[in-house]
Design goal:
The chain has two domains: 68 residues, no CATH class; 57 residues, no CATH class. It has 126 residues and is an alpha+beta fold. The protein has two helices and two strands. A two-stranded parallel ribbon has the order 1-2.
Length: 126
């Protein structure tokens, strides 16, 4: 197809699907990819479908490499624990693009903290 870039847009079918899509590509990527709002995407589709015009898109992108951030995991064993009895607990503390930050997913981290406190009490009392 001789593709020069990838343009992705939300379909706008519901109010929460009109913002640009936000996603990390997670690997080396040599194809520019832009995530557009529903209105911009639909405007480009309309222009491309209009055969009386020769629609085109000019993309100017500035990119930079960001340093990798360390990710921490906590692993714990009890001195007298049974290796056949394992508890795995997980959550994430990031947010969605429309959210103000950690508060929308902070409940997972809060639940982890609550479980850690409860387990500590359980192991101290048994």
């Amino acid at each position: 197809y001789n593709v020069s870039a990838l343009l992705i847009y939300n379909d706008g079918a519901t109010p929460d699907r009109v913002s640009p899509i936000a996603v990390g590509l997670g690997q080396e990527n040599y194809l520019p990819a832009l995530f557009l709002s529903s209105s911009v995407g639909q405007e480009l589709v309309n222009a491309a479908q209009n055969t009386s015009t020769n629609a085109g898109v000019r993309i100017i992108i500035q990119v930079k490499d960001l340093p990798l951030s360390p990710i921490g995991n906590i692993c714990a064993d009890t001195p007298t624990g049974d290796i056949t009895q394992t508890i795995v607990v997980g959550s994430h503390s990031d947010s969605v693009p429309a959210g103000p930050g950690i508060n929308d997913n902070g409940s997972g981290s809060t639940a982890n903290l609550g479980l850690a406190i409860a387990l500590a009490r359980l192991f101290n009392n048994s």
